[in-house]
Amino acid sequence: MKYISTRGGGSPCTAAEAIKAGLAPDGGLFVPEATPELGGNMPEELAPLGYQERAARILTPFLTDYTAAEIKASVLAAYGGGKFDHAAVAPLQTFGDGFSVLELWHGPTSAFKDMALQLLPHLLSQALAKTREAREVVILVATSGDTGKAALEGFRDVKQTRIVVFFPDEGVSEVQRLQMVTQEGGNVVVVAVNGNFDDAQTGVKSIFNDPGFSAELGDRGFLLSSANSINWGRLVPQIVYYYSAYADLVKGGRIRSGQEVNFVVPTGNFGNILAGYYAKQMGLPVGRLICAANKNNVLTDFLRTGVYDRRREFFKTMSPSMDILISSNLERLLYYATGGDTAQVSAWMSELNASGAYRVAGTPLARIQETFWSGWADESTTAKTIRAVYEHCRYLLDPHTAVAWSVAEEYRRETSDRTPLVVVSTASPFKFNHSVLAALSGPGATRGKGEFDILRELSAATGRTVPKALATLEHKPVRHRALTDKAAMADAVRDVLHIVKDN
Ligand SMILES: *Cc1c(COP(=O)(O)O)cnc(C)c1O
Prior knowledge:
It contains 22 helices and 15 strands. With 503 residues, the protein is an alpha/beta fold. The protein has a domain at 92-109 and 238-467: Rossmann fold (3-Layer(aba) Sandwich). A hairpin with a 4-residue loop joins strand 3 (92-94) and strand 4. Bound molecules: pyridoxal-5'-phosphate.
């Protein structure tokens, strides 16, 4: 299987090369030359298997330059060894009315990013060996909160790598911030950026797109790469849990094999839901992919009208990992919607860059709308959903998942579609303890209280245990205090690598 750029530049490369590079040389995103089809029996074949074996089955056709032994070792290391606090790794909770919740937050950082970022470092290390790479890889990450911590945990003390994480100083929850600034490991650096997530992401992208900077680093034995969801190595592990959820529905007798299922996905950078789109293309009986947005509803507008327009107010919400106005992975969907018209994709991306907007119409839009539906939830609806679902189902949602649950209900109200629905749950409610407790007990419930008092209170109120990695944050020393302006991010990287700037 070879990989090509959504913008048509460069020549086809192997999975290892695509994973090592992160971004294609022309600024596009890597996509497989053809999407493998797995056949209708795959879910039944997966049903008796554990998550690691399921993962190996789905990854293999994409990673044809990796040996079976390499893939097996990677999935065992990523999803075994007690790193996930649930034996099923990605368990499915079923409710009445054809609703299920796929819990993707049982990994070490309590958010769904672990599903990919526990695996990526293994795939990358193997890629370095395969491509006889001698340089040290510097992973740059822009995070809206969850990616940063998951990448730090995944890459800490991985040989031949360093990782630098940029997070928006004012844009993450207190638990998310503490998770990052207390990170241990000899190869990790965490830097706060004055600005929002888009500022951090744009800063990282412009570092990647600066050939002079890459050359400067290359001369000193460093190679830049990305652990953001634009990296193919982030996307491919996410396809697994769509298959896994479907296999569990069949196994539990909730659906007949072959019956369609809809997935509702809390969406920001469009990586998670895009993995569902790959699963559908591979033959998984996915009906609709429902894109749930918060008040930053640029994707809802796009999926309804074809107009992508980022020129709008940016809102900070209680679901910060979805506070995004530029959804990078949408570029891959555009590639498929145009039937691989890389010139058209490049033109839209240039328009987005130059003017902040572009319009998709005609066949590509029709193709997108055939599969995708979108709704969004405002802050008060999100809070009400957390409370209502707890009251009626005794099930605690984090704000991101609550957005998805609310959009799932909206979808059922507005369409006659009664296809079984899987709500994809992306974070532990304890990670967003303030918003969740305030939603349950009113806005006064958190006033004047410390972070860890709130965690304990939430635990007492709901009878659920705080994930261990969050509970122990209280006593961890802060190790990272750097703060940079968005214009100075490249200098921050130079500092980390002890590079004196060329003149
Ligand atoms: C990253 C994240 C999202 C958004 O996922 P994308 O793949 O960027 O669309 C949603 N919820 C949580 C909790 C996340 O960490």
